[in-house]
């Protein structure tokens, strides 16, 4: 949907129009869920983050800059909510996270809803092995086609930091995907 149309829906939503919210949700939830799925490991945590994203959308309507595309603003909300979730999790469950890391439970990365649009399972697993910071930059670049400058703006970090995480992530992906057929490696090597 066009950013102008989305802005009109946001204005209606601000005035309390629930149908406008449902229209925005229907138009964006699959893209948002896919991004969250790559950044948050567990299904229940994903649902919590998704709820927080749309609640944050509701409460921060006044902050939407109409000079920027709607999806850029939305992805900024996604990244901030994922970061908040990580900080909360780290503070509350640091000990439990260490225990879980040793007993690493099965992830839900191979579910069709997460891997929509033909994402290769080997690539998904390789992305999963990246650090959280590398994974965030790679997801924004590969799946959402943001430039490195736009990614720096979304994450509110210096461009050099984004470049460093991006190149380290690509290097790790290349290392993890050595057994991938040459035609699949071409896309990764192009970046």
Automatic annotation (TrEMBL):
Belongs to the sigma-70 factor family. ECF subfamily. This is RNA polymerase sigma-70 factor (ECF subfamily). Pfam families: Sigma70_r2 (PF04542), Sigma70_r4 (PF04545). Residues 25-91, 126-175 form the RNA polymerase sigma-70 region domain. It comes from Paenibacillus eucommiae. Transmembrane segments: none annotated. The lineage of its organism: Bacteria, Bacillati, Bacillota, Bacilli, Bacillales. Gene3D superfamilies: 1.10.1740.10, Winged helix-like DNA-binding domain superfamily/Winged helix DNA-binding domain. The keyword DNA-binding applies. InterPro entries: RNA_pol_sigma-70-like (IPR039425), RNA_pol_sigma-70_dom (IPR014284), RNA_pol_sigma70_r2 (IPR007627), RNA_pol_sigma70_r4 (IPR007630), RNA_pol_sigma_r2 (IPR013325), RNA_pol_sigma_r3/r4-like (IPR013324), WH-like_DNA-bd_sf (IPR036388). Keywords: DNA-binding, Sigma factor, Transcription, Transcription regulation.
